[in-house]
Amino acid sequence: MTHHRLFVQDLAAGYGDRNVFAGLDLDVLPAKITAIVGANACGKSTLLRAMSRLLPPRQGQVLLDGKSIHTMPPRKLAQTLGLLPQSPIAPEGITVSDLVGRGRHPHQGVFSRWTRQDDEAVAAALQATNTTDLAERPVDELSGGQRQRIWIAMALAQQTDILLLDEPTTFLDIAHQVEVLDLLVDLNQTRGTTIIMVLHDLNLAARYADHLVAMADGRLHARGTPGDVLTVETVRDVFGLESSIVADPLSGRPLMLPIGRHRIKREEVA
């Protein structure tokens, strides 16, 4: 199987008259899961928007297999690269099945009709996100957690080789967070999908990602395996937080324990 390669080269992006970051380089590992972590407003979401062409670069470029994504036809790009942005907005009154079906648009030509393959892709995406029973309901009647799973289903229905997700676990309780991340691992392992996701939870990022990228103040502070990146020094530099790093007893990956001002001891049991 041939895996597509995404590379960020000397990239600068921002809003108004301010650059969020500049001169940024990132070589995304193909067929692996990369998690981008960092404090609020450090540039994580801006980087993902620039990598998906939602935000035009002010300098540099994003390359897909050596070609600039900014010169590619939108439909062709969307057949290879999919994005789940932060807080997407659904058209008023649209049903779940219709919204998820929009993930199939890049695979349809101007005159092509809906096919059995499209039906199968939508059904598989709904089943994978445990939302099949919601298919006929209007999206605006769903809870925040249900909506998030529907948006993930739409991204899955697009069946791209590269998938970018900005906070895919937003609005989800811990059980559904783990369910979604397990689903992304399945997608990566069975289809070889390259996944780049922004996550707030350091410990979930360390458990599920092959590669961590820690951002701070618009720059890449550290990158590498979870064991290389999730250290006491990185947590201090990136989050301004003192911590202790131990081995996760389940995965063997690093587990960050925050050290706050109040160290509450467990009560003695008589």
Q: Quick summary of this structure?
A:
The chain has helices spanning 44-51, 74-78, 96-101, 116-128, 144-157, 174-191, 202-208, 226-229, 232-239, and strands at residues 6-15, 18-27, 33-38, 59-64, 67-68, 81-84, 162-166, 194-198, 211-216, 219-224, 243-247, 254-258.
The rounded Rg comes to 20 Å
- The CATH class name of the largest domain reads Alpha Beta
Which sequence of SSEs, written as H and E, runs from N to C? EEEHEEHEHHHEHEHEEHHEE
Fourth-tier CATH superfamily name of the largest domain: P-loop containing nucleotide triphosphate hydrolases
Q: Based on CA inertia axes, which overall geometry fits?
A: globular
The appropriate CATH architecture of the largest domain is 3-Layer(aba) Sandwich
Which strand order spans the largest sheet, edge to edge or round the barrel?
6-7-8-3-9-10
Beta-sheet strand percentage? 25-35%
Give the distance, in angstroms, between the N- and C-terminal Cα atoms: 61 Å
The computed structural class is alpha/beta
CATH domain fold name of the largest domain: Rossmann fold
| Secondary structure tally: strands | 12
Number of domains: 2
Sheet with most strands = 6 strands, mixed
| Contiguous runs where pLDDT drops below 50 for at least 5 residues | none
User: How many distinct helices?
Assistant: 9
If you average the pLDDT, what whole number results? 92
Question: What's the helical proportion of residues?
Answer: 25-40%
